[in-house]
Design brief:
- A hairpin with a 2-residue loop joins strand 2 and strand 3.
- This protein is α+β, with helices and mostly antiparallel strands.
- Strands 1-2-3-5-4 form a 5-stranded antiparallel beta sheet, with helices on one face.
- It has 5 helices and 5 strands.
- The chain has a single domain, classed as 2-Layer Sandwich (Heat Shock Protein 90), CATH 3.30.565.
- The structure holds adenosine-5'-triphosphate (ATP) and magnesium ion.
- Adenosine-5'-triphosphate (ATP) binds next to helix 2 and helix 5.
């Protein structure tokens, strides 16, 4: 179901490492934007899960970052860029259950090692790039049925 829109609807959010108070803000705004446009609920749920996991990773692991989304008639693209330690072994990081989350993060209920696999699972296209010592970029696309 393509949306009846001509222009791309964009949003962008600054993410700050350690700022758990802001966690979930980007995903909840994207959710509302999609709902207002009448996007299918299942699609909204996928976009919200993928976005939420991405913002959590920046807040937990990076110093700072940006999340941007672009809604067009047939899909939503989400791009998360951070300045942080980067990921040395992306293949390993993508495995279910792999996590380097420290104890204080686990005590908050995070660190199951499911974020990246769930981002991939919930997107139609998923790309991750990382440079150790510089940062990580994730790009996800979710198509509208
Ligand atoms: N933006 C990032 N910068 C640096 N390292 C990252 C980033 N995102 C993920 N990682 C690394 O990849 C690992 C796996 O990430 P993933 O999101 O799958 O699991 P997690 O964050 O450890 O746990 P969960 O997401 O289930 O709470 C992390 O533990 C971390 O080592
Ligand atoms: Mg995670």
């Amino acid at each position: 179901m393509a949306l009846d829109i001509n222009e791309t609807i964009e949003g962008s959010f600054q993410l700050v490492g350690g700022n758990f108070a802001n966690a979930g803000e980007a995903s909840s705004q994207l959710k509302h934007a999609l709902a207002e446009l009448g996007v299918d609920e299942g699609i909204i749920r996928r976009a919200a899960i993928a976005t939420f996991e991405a913002e959590m990773n920046v807040i937990i692991y990076a110093a700072a970052g940006w999340l941007r989304y672009y809604i067009s008639s047939d899909r939503v693209r989400i791009r998360i860029e951070d300045m942080g330690p980067g990921i040395e072994d992306i293949e390993l990081a993508m495995q279910e259950g792999y996590s380097t989350a420290p104890d204080w993060v686990r005590e908050m209920g995070w660190g199951a090692g499911m974020g990246l696999p769930n981002m991939k699972k919930n997107s139609d296209e998923f790309k991750i790039d990382s440079v150790v010592g510089e940062g990580t970029t994730v790009e996800m696309t979710i198509n509208f049925p």
